[in-house]
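Intended use. Records like the one below are meant for learning the mapping from a protein sequence to its folded structure. Do not use them to infer anything beyond what is encoded.
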Amino acid sequence: MTTKTVALALGLATLLALPALAADIYLVRHAEKQTDATEDPDLTETGRLRAANLAVLFKSAGIGRVFTTDYKRTRETAVPVAEVAGVELEIYDPKALDALAARLLESRDNALVVGHSNTTPDLVGLLGGEAGPPIVEAWEYDRLYLLLTDNGKVTQTILLHLPPGTEAPPGN
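Structure written out for the chain above:
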């Protein structure tokens, strides 16, 4: 691992280990996908490693719910976190982001939402967070939003960048 990756992982691990005063909502785009001509591609090897890294990073985050769209790339990104958290995947409709936002804000569980380059920033905005610039479809897979909530309202948006998916997760 590079020094930058280790520092980011340690910083994120520290942030995730803080006691939650209210539900936290984490949002990511799915990991790297195959570039074949199929409508529903699988993850690449790099994408599978990134998904495994997510599971390591979220191991102590108290994730109680994992939401994903019903595409292979989002499910394959979400499964390692759901397995570590001991929860089932909850499928959501990316065309009904308002309904998902309401569910997330009503929940008292820390949640991970795995979405797409075009839906993740939109959902951040619907939740009341700051989405920042659009996610670059062609290459940006490392953005992680952390929305801190209190009484069903987002109080802070933290934008992080995940370590690359090209390395084995720490401890494996």
